[in-house]
Amino acid sequence: MIFLKKHFIFDAWMKFILSALLCVGNAHAQDQAASKASDNKVRHIDGVVVVVNTGFITRKEIDDRINALKKQGAKAPDEATLRKEVLDRLILEKIQIQNAEREGFSVNEKELNSIIENIAAKNKLSVAEFKQKIEASGSSFEKYKEFLRNDVMTSRYREREIEAKIKISDAEIDNYIVEKNRALSMGAGARSAPAAKGEPEEIDVAQIFIPADAGAGLGAQADAKKKAESLLREAKGGADFLSLGAMAAQENPKIKFQELGYRTPDRLPQIFYEAVRNTGGGQVANAVVKSPAGYHVLKVLDRRALVAGGQAAPQADATPSTPQNIPITQTLSRHILLRHRAGLSDQDAERRLAGYRDQVRAKTADFGELAKKYSEDGSAQNGGNLGWMGPGDLVPEFELAMNRLQIGEVSNPVKTEFGWHLIQVLERREAQLTVEKQRQFARAAIRERKFEQAYQDWLRELRDTATVKVLNTDDASAKAPR
Prior knowledge:
Elements: H1 12-18, H2 32-42, E1 48-52, E2 55-58, H3 59-71, H4 79-102, H5 109-122, H6 127-136, H7 141-165, H8 170-185, E3 201-211, H9 218-236, H10 241-251, E4 256-263, H11 270-276, E5 283-284, E6 289-291, E7 294-305, E8 326-339, H12 346-361, H13 367-374, E9 385-389, H14 396-403, E10 414-416, E11 419-433, H15 435-465, E12 468-470, H16 473-476
Antiparallel strand pairs: 1-2, 1-12, 3-4, 3-7, 5-7, 6-7, 8-9, 8-11, 10-11
Helix pairs in contact: 3-4, 4-7, 7-15, 8-15, 10-14
């Protein structure tokens, strides 16, 4: 299904609108003589701000990108900061395009037209209507095609380069599965051997961190605290802490979810230890913790005793040290999806779905028939039926809402990255999650975790090996970082 938790192709129309927020790039060093020659050629061209290898970025490119961002409500501390951030992104994009072309990546006209047809179809528009929508946004269709061609080309190049840097061993997969199985076992209560009173112990703590440093305004501080307290209420109400943290981080990338791992009390932040001193394994701390950096929601995943030499005591009911099939609960559900799109506000989508919900609850309409008529994804023809889904198969927001429902119950409208959903649970069953399926999940999760670090390392490497010369520091606001 379109909203399953897997890699997918973002709607390129939305990518056009948000392209200024992308930070992508790749580069190979140019020899100094070529750079100087390029510098001399473009120094006298009106409006050139930066020379990037053998190409350049103009004042108009920067202004156009800033205007596009402002139309989307982008905010920055000041105009100079926004201008510098835009320039940095344009430099990275320029480097990426140059290197992709040098490596032989290209998108021909036939392929590009096919991609545009698919994008238009996903937006339920003809190509002519899609073209009109782009031009109504203030951009020419040719400029859009140029952007799309570059984006597809460089995305393919980036994927090839970064995938080659990500190595995942069988041992990593095995360890990941064992740790996840241990974490699942903690859901019914800690199973490690507890420390006797006064004896040394280790504590495994997870946190959801909502940043709000001391320099933030009162409003930002209040918003962060309110969010933290809301998450705490959900966690204490029985919501899965891992899903809750993942969902919060997805909604706001500044929010971080982190498992600290087993630590002795002296290796925990003092304010954390004070908050969980009397909290048992599998329990959430009673209150939100305030630090100079922001607010923390804490859960003790496990507590275990230490024996002589600082080793963990044997667990009373230890999780197997090798991967094995594990029992899971699968859910059969159906949904009605209203996609995010121009002309449909969140308020309108939520109001429409609430109306469908009320009809189903009043038994004046059948959920499946409403899904066939109004749902905007491939499951509509089957009455919105999604099939049997297990933990991790769906995006966190959807899964969290679904898991709270009783059989036959209909949810309130739920927002995810794909749109707004109305969910009904039809049935639940116990099943076995095979080791092979666990390995597939583990490999994908490890890859996702490693991808961001590999991507950032790659960006730095490319930026460091590129030849970038700022010609007009007034336009650039500040010299681009080397």
